[in-house]
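Sharing in case it's useful to others searching the archive later.

Someone asked me privately for the predicted structure of Carbohydrate ABC transporter permease, so I'm posting the question and my answer publicly. Question first, with the sequence:
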Amino acid sequence: MVDPKQSPRHLTERPLKRKSRSGSMNIGEFLFNVCNYGLLAFFGLVTILPFWHVFVVSITSYQSYLNNKFIMFPVDISFSSYGVLLSDPKIHRSFLITVFIVMASTLLHLAITAITAYPLSRSYLKGRNAMMLFIIITMLFSGGLIPHYLLIKYLGLLNNILVYIIPGAFSGFSAILMLNFFKQIPDSLEEAARIDGAGHLYILVNIFIPLSMPIISTLALFYGVGKWNDWFTAVIFVDKASLYPIQNILREFLILGNMDTIGKGMFESDSYKLIINIKMAIIMVATLPIILVYPFMQKHFVKGVLLGSIKQ
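And my answer, the predicted structure tokens:
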């Protein structure tokens, strides 16, 4: 007979063995974790240091900057450069224009992409392969800059704020990602809605889009960041400074500002002293808002890319 006070051997050894596995770490795992976290910390530091340096220079006095060009900690703190930016109506206007462009173009892009991807994701759509081939061709070939300029001119979009929004509102890359995501939604949901009398627009808006927030957030982040950083469109198609986005104002300070001070004793002029601080301050103003968006979109970002790029 087995003593009831004495537990069987197989019941006592397994928990101890499992506990030892989870509670202990061998030399190889420890070294891997040290190297892994060390590399991640190093790359994170390399990424943060330039941004921190820009911020420190933007609030450091000009004389302290001349004494030590690479400043890691602010000296003689002064927020006069930010005061100049906040009091400049040109900066206010360009910032508001950029926010409007990003929001309007991103919403239009998502709407067009969803309307395109939904029918192409349905297997019963006739001619879907030919349509997909047409979309892929547009991803591989383009007409070039001169035909594109002539098209914008004939559409009447030169010196028009719509030139930032309408051209490029559709992207084949975004359509393919959303299409593959829509394919993973069970067909039974669409069939049940069709039995209840729902139309395609109702199914898209009330079923597919709420279930596709990961890919929608990912595409919104991709496209929104691209529009926020876009400066080339204004250089080619816009002559009015009143329609410049924030990136073109930054370009003027970084490039044209240096050219204006050449020949005046650049390192001694008051304009150079002002430009140094304003350059760094406007870089912060142009970069910080889009950086603050990432933490709110990060939870959907990886999931949206993986699920939208792999067809199961």
